[in-house]
Amino acid sequence: MDSDQLLSSFVKVLVSDPERSAKFYEALGFKRTQAAPPFIHLQWEKQAEVYLVTLPPVVKLEGQRGLGVLLGFRIGAVDLQEVASRARAQGAHVEGPTVQPWFTREIIVTDPDGYRLNFIEPA
User: Are 84 and 107 in contact (CB under 8 A)?
Assistant: First the structure.
C-alpha cells in the first residue's frame, strides 16, 4: 500500500491468536488489507486502521488487556445494531446501546483478547 493511502493514525494490539482475532474483526465489518507476520492489517470503513500483532513467544500478558482504553470507531455503512448483532453471533460480550449526553449512541464490544471496541453513531 502506498504511503499516501495510509491513514495518519492507527492502533496496534497484541493478540494471542492472530487468525482468530482477524476472523472476529472481519465478522464485525473490518477489511483485511495486508497480512505479513507478525502483523495483520485491518481497516474500518476507510477511516481507521488496526494492526493485530502476534504476541512474541517470550512475552506473557496477564490480566485485562487495554485496561482503561476504548478503541473508538465511527459507524458508517454498517449501522450500530448490525455491528452488535455480528458481535453477538461471534459470542462477544456487547454493552449497550447507550445514548450519551454528547449526542451519540454507542456500544462496546469485547474482542477475543479482552480489548474493548467502542462503536459510535450520532444519536
Answer: yes
Using alpha carbons, select from 69, 73, 78, 80 the residue that is nearest to residue 105: 80
> Taking the mean position of all CA atoms in its chain, how far away is CA 3?
22
Q: Is the pLDDT of residue 52 over 60?
A: yes
Query: Residue 117 — very low, low, confident or very high, per pLDDT cuts 50/70/90?
Result: very high
> What pLDDT score was predicted for residue 4?
55
Contact residues for 35 (Cβ-Cβ < 8 A; gap 6+): 22, 41
**Closest residue by Cα to residue 96 from 113, 112, 80:** 80
Q: Burial code of 12-32, b = ≥16 C-beta within 10 A, e = fewer?
A: ebbbeebeebbebbeebbbee
d(CA 68, CA 66): 6
Which domains does the chain carry?
Answer: 3-57+69-122 (3.10.180.10)
